[in-house]
Amino acid sequence: MENPAQQAMKLFVQNFGTKADDLYQAPGRINIIGEHTDYNEGLVLPVAINFNTVIAVKHRDDYQFRAVSDAFPGEIQQWEFGHEGDIADDSQWYNYLKGITAAMALSGLHAKGLDLAIVGNVPLGTGLSSSAALEIAFGTAISYADQLHLSPLAIAQISQRAESHMTRQECGIMDQMISALAEPDHALLIDCLELDSEPVLLPENLSLIVIDLNIDRKSFMAQYQERKQSCYEITEILGLDSLRDLTQIQLHRAKQLLTDSQYRRALHVMTESQRTASAARALQENNLNRFSEIMHHSHCSLRDNFEVVTPEMDHVINAVHQFVGDKGGVKMSDGCIIALVDHELTDQVIELVEDSFHSLTGRDATIHLCSASGGAGRIT
Ligand code: ADP
Ligand code: MG
Predict the structure, then answer these.
(1) CB within 8 A of 140, min separation 6: which ones?
(2) What pairing do the DSSP bridges indicate for beta strands 377-379 and 22-31?
(3) What's the pLDDT at 169?
(4) Which CATH architecture has domain 206-370?
(5) What is the pLDDT of residue 88?
(6) Does the Cβ of 124 fall within 6 Å of ligand 1?
(7) Ligand 1 lined by 72 (C-beta under 6 Å)
């Protein structure tokens, strides 16, 4: 079977009648821990996975961009750098690309056009961040092709602006940063306020299992936005710049200013950021026992305080947690489930997930055995 790079080259020739010059790629991601902390300017610990978006590119002498994607067969889409029109509130796939060139133009950058053929294997719209993979692959392609010499962080920031503009929702920086900056075999501890990041080597003996329960993504995202809004309201009530700054003493003192659910939302964000730092340390020290415990606390807080874990997810997570004990961690991540477990338990965990989810719902889970991959770049 052809890999995405070969497929992208083929798609390019089919659509543009000539060979592409270069190939670029960027990966999808899963977040180990740090749930709902990115837009609250706290810590997150994502890992890039071995699913990526590849773009075959040919340079143009004018300022036109033309793009096709195998995920959305149809006409070639075309726009001009700096003349993207109104891209907001329109869910067309190519608006992610137009958003990037618009954000670049707004930053005072100039770039000549490209013809683009896009092929990816990051599942779309399931919480593995195909949108950031697309944005970062494209941003990286322009940066190389036009010799803009943008840093991976700059490409991530441009992409974050593009996605926020397009979706009319201010999105966090996590997805774009991990796709741009990841290192193979490492997770990345990101400080979402300072935009500092530190690679965290994952213990060699752990398998990375990503479980997609095929949830109703639309209502999950609506709930996500509701929680985000709620966090901003709490931040305002407490007179803070972000919930990142919240201390235990402040939260205790302000308890009467908040409703019970607001108090629990704030408690989740505050403790989750602390757990993220501790989980990174536990992984660095290969302290699986501690890591397992922290992941379980995160799961309980997401379920009981932040109330974003469905009964089905809870069922599967608890089954895995009980089975692996202190030999791995499991929790929800952006609507999927991530399990980092001792290699020896891999097959049994996969079987357990399949059985426990099927017996509860009659449906099948989609399970990916992943590896921690490197970030975006040119494919040589
Ligand atoms: P997620 O990022 O979790 O996969 P999103 O809803 O944020 O979900 O992004 C999915 C959207 O990103 C798709 O509907 C499409 O518009 C765009 N997209 C992602 N990957 C591709 C691709 N390979 N080709 C075209 N569009 C893509
Ligand atoms: Mg996305």
Answers:
(1) 24, 26, 152, 155, 180, 376, 377, 378
(2) antiparallel
(3) 81
(4) 2-Layer Sandwich (3.30)
(5) 66
(6) yes
(7) yes
Ligand 1 and 127: CB distance under 6 A: yes
Query: Residue 124's CB: how many other CB atoms inside 10 A?
Result: 16
Whether 370 contacts 163, CB under 8 Å? no
The reported pLDDT for the residue numbered 91 is 75
86 is catalytic: no
Alpha carbon nearest to ligand 1 atom 2, residue: 129
Q: What is the spatial distance between Cα 229 and Cα 262, in angstroms, rounded to a whole number?
A: 11
How many angstroms separate the alpha carbon of residue 203 from the centre of ligand 2?
A: 28
Q: Which two tokens stand for residue 53?
A: 């978006």
Distance 29 CA to ligand 2 centre (A): 10
DSSP designation for 83: B
> What pLDDT does 165 receive?
87
The residue whose CA has the least distance to atom 16 of ligand 1 is 93
With beta carbons less than 8 A apart as the criterion, state whether 98 and 163 touch: no
Residues in the chain, pLDDT under 50: none
Reported as a single tens digit per residue, the pLDDT across 176-212 is 999 999 999 999 999 999 999 999 999 999 999 999 9
Rounded distance, CA 364 to CA 367, Å? 9
Q: Is the shortest distance between the CB of 118 and ligand 1 below 6 Å? A: yes
Residues 371 and 343: their CA atoms lie apart, in Å, by 12
Ligand nearest to the Cα of 28, by number: 1
Domain boundaries for CATH 3.30.70.890 within the chain? 206-370
Kindly indicate whether the domain formed by 4-200 is annotated with CATH number 3.40.50.720. Answer: no
Q: Is the pTM of this model over 0.90?
A: yes
Give the per-residue pLDDT at 171. 86
Per residue in 313-362, pLDDT (tens digit) is 999 999 999 999 999 999 999 999 999 999 999 999 999 999 999 999 99
Shortest-distance Cα residue to atom 27 of ligand 1: 93
Start-end ranges of CATH 3.30.230.10 in the chain? 4-200
Name which of 135, 107, 104 is nearest 122 in CA terms: 135
